[in-house]
Write a structure and sequence with these properties.
about 160 residues; alpha/beta; Oxidized Rhodanese, domain 1; five-stranded parallel β-sheet; 5 helices; about 30% helix
C-alpha cells in the first residue's frame, strides 16, 4: 500500500513538469511587411507592375533621361515638376486631365498621384488611372503612396514644388 501511494504521489508531482502551456512560452515577435498599395486587390485598375516607387520617380525626375509626365490629382501638395490637375473625383478635373493628355504620345510614361490618404479610401486615384487606361496610355503608372504624400514622399526628402 505504501509503495502504491508512493508511485501515485510521484506521478502526481511529475505530471506538471511534462505539461507546458503555450501561453507560458516567451512571445515571438512577428514583423509585418510595410503597407503597400492594393495592387492585387480585385477591382483595382492598376497592377503591381504599374506601381512606381517614390525613390524610382525621384530618380527619373532628376536623372539624365527623359522624365515622365506627372499629374497631381489631389489636394496634398505638388511634387516638383508635376502638373497640378485637381481632385479626380470631380468631373472638371477629369476633363482637365483629358485635355492635358491629348497632346501626348500614347507610349509616353505618365504618372498620376494623389497622396491625400491611403490608397483604399482615396477618391482620386482610381478615376485618374482609369482615364489613362481608357485613353490608351501604355506606360501609365501610379505613384505608390500607400500612406499619403507626406509620409511617403515629403518625409523621405523628395522634392516638392515651391508654394507661391
Amino acid at each position: 500500500m505504501k509503495r502504491c501511494l508512493y508511485h501515485l504521489l510521484s506521478a502526481f508531482l511529475l505530471l506538471p513538469a511534462g505539461c507546458t502551456n503555450p501561453a507560458d512560452k516567451a512571445p515571438t515577435t512577428v514583423t509585418a511587411p510595410p503597407p503597400t498599395a492594393a495592387s492585387a486587390a480585385p477591382g483595382e485598375p492598376w497592377t503591381a507592375a504599374e506601381l512606381l516607387a517614390p525613390a524610382a520617380l525621384a530618380a527619373q525626375l532628376r536623372g539624365p533621361g527623359p522624365a515622365p509626365v506627372v499629374f497631381d490629382m489631389g489636394p496634398a501638395g505638388t511634387i516638383k515638376g508635376a502638373r497640378p490637375i485637381g481632385p479626380a473625383q470631380e468631373e472638371a478635373s477629369l476633363v482637365k486631365l483629358r485635355t492635358a493628355l491629348a497632346g501626348l504620345p500614347k507610349d509616353q510614361p505618365v504618372v498620376v498621384y494623389c497622396g491625400c490618404c491611403p490608397f483604399a479610401p482615396c477618391p482620386n486615384i482610381r478615376p485618374a488611372f482609369r482615364l489613362l487606361l481608357a485613353e490608351g496610355f501604355t506606360q501609365a503608372r501610379l505613384l505608390n503612396l500607400p500612406h499619403n504624400l507626406k509620409a511617403d514622399w515629403i518625409d523621405a526628402g523628395y522634392p516638392m514644388a515651391s508654394s507661391k
